[in-house]
Amino acid sequence: MIAFSVYRGHVWHGRSAPTRHQFSYRHAWLALTLLPGQPEPASLRLAPGVVWQRRRHGPRDGSPLLPWLTARLAASGVRDIARVELHTLPSLFGYVFNPVSFYLVFDAAATLRAVWVEVSNTFGQHHDYCLHHPDHRAIGRHDLLSTGKALQVSPFFQVEGSYRFRFLRAADGRFAVRIEYRRDDEHNDFVATQQGTPVPYSPARLWQLLLATGLLSVAVWLRIHWQALRLWRKKVPFFGKDGHAASSVSPGELS
Fold it and tell me: Is there a smaller number of Cβ atoms within 10 Å at the N or the C end of the chain?
């Protein structure tokens, strides 16, 4: 059986342009360990109604993730892969919306060498980012990894500028990521953080955690739309899925 951990923590989002807006909420997620040569299940039942499904990641056709990921990492020069840790959300009664999933890539010395970032938006679009140092050295907790923005995520920002990522994966399991979005070289327009620690797992405990965090995927979808409505009421300019300006938006246009 594939190894996994359940994480409990919180998420914080804050923007400074064109108006200040921030929020935070409790969060929970799943971390699965992918090992070379280890069979990957097509799905993993965690509790009644709570299932992780392989077909929702990578090529999204149900095929094994690690061979697919290894080939793409090799194309970017990342080849020493001993373990991959996928931080993501499971589905709840068949539904899941994963705004972002992180594949942490470790070498034989258990050193973080790369991170594959899988991003989805409410328009049903996806894009992946491969993050590593140009010389493929180890990624430290204070290191910033940059990449250009290539997908419309928030409909209140256009597809322009760049992201800067900072990761922590401690020996005791603690996980943290900070994402900075900027349209120029000096100012952060938006910052998001996610951090948490693994907690003891049982199906009953998992459901307690789901209830405490607002039922995960359902809550994520609802919170995205609620915060979008708040931004719209603040008259923040709205851009459609192609990054074009729109004078108004209805709730149905956000999904």
Answer: N
- How do the pLDDT tens digits run along the chain, 255 residues long? 799 999 999 999 988 877 787 888 889 999 999 999 999 999 999 999 999 999 999 999 999 999 999 999 999 999 999 999 999 999 888 888 888 999 999 999 999 999 999 999 878 899 999 999 999 999 999 999 999 999 888 776 788 899 999 999 999 999 999 999 998 888 898 999 999 999 999 999 988 888 766 556 555 556 665 566 665 566 666 565 655 444 333 333 332
Cβ pair 33, 84 in contact under 8 A: yes
pTM confidence score = 0.86
3-state SS, residue 44: strand
Using DSSP bridges, classify how beta strands 175-182 and 162-169 pair: parallel, antiparallel or unpaired. antiparallel
Spell out a b/e string for 196-226, using b for 16 or more CB atoms within 10 Å of the CB, else e: bebeeeeeeebbebbeebbbbbebbbeebee
